[in-house]
Amino acid sequence: MGKLPSFILCSVVNGGSHLSNFYTFSSSSNTIAIHIEALSKKPMSVRGKGGKDDRFDNVNDALILFNKMIDKYPKPSIVEFNKLLGAIGRMKHYAIVVSMYRRIDLLGVSCDVYSLNILINCFCQLGRIDFGFSVLGKMLKLGVEPDVVTFSTLINGLCNQSKIFEAVSMLDEMTERGYQPNLFVCSTILKGLCKSDNTDRSVRFLRLMEGRGFQPNIVAYSTVIDCLCKNGLVKEALDLFSEMKDKGIRPDMVTLVA
């Protein structure tokens, strides 16, 4: 197992204090309490699509089911809560998921890697990558092993905040732990490097993708070619364009415009 980068170690050491911050964040965001209180005053049936508990017509249906679940004794397993958290996350109600997680945690229901990954994704979508790393710190303290989804979600969150070098460090940590990043993760980092006009590193990362067994697609090549052109490296861009065609990758409109 590889050595954790310094910014991850900081999250582990400070995990407790950061987690208290996101509890404050989630308790101050009382969206779920308002929804549940309002819904409890009027009848409404829970209408899942296709007979599945993890798909709903709207967030209100999911909130009603959550209210029923937390009143049950014994409490449902974390697997059942995960279905609900995942469904609401897919509806993009990220703050509600954070509030739900806090309620589940206070009930003493043990979370697993899946539920913690959902929470990390919600924090990343809310622009709070710092809280996402605090959740990673909590995972490590609890002995819950992060998986490929954990690292991929954090890498995407870092790229969205233009923290590209931290994202590359996360990618290194991910591979050292034996997890193979997918093409989407690599493409996300490549796009971030190009947005930061780091042309040399963009080309090196493209080669790194090939070295790790990924065949860069038209999007990856177009991204780097566009970056080279914008930085006046036309010859290098044309060479890469020729290389792409030699590999049988047909250029699209984006590549030709670049």
UniProtKB/TrEMBL annotation:
Coiled coil: none annotated. Keywords: Repeat. PPR repeats lie at residues 112-146, 147-181, 182-216, 217-251. It holds the Pfam family PPR_2. The keyword Nucleotidyltransferase does not apply. Belongs to the PPR family. P subfamily. This is Pentacotripeptide-repeat region of PRORP domain-containing protein.
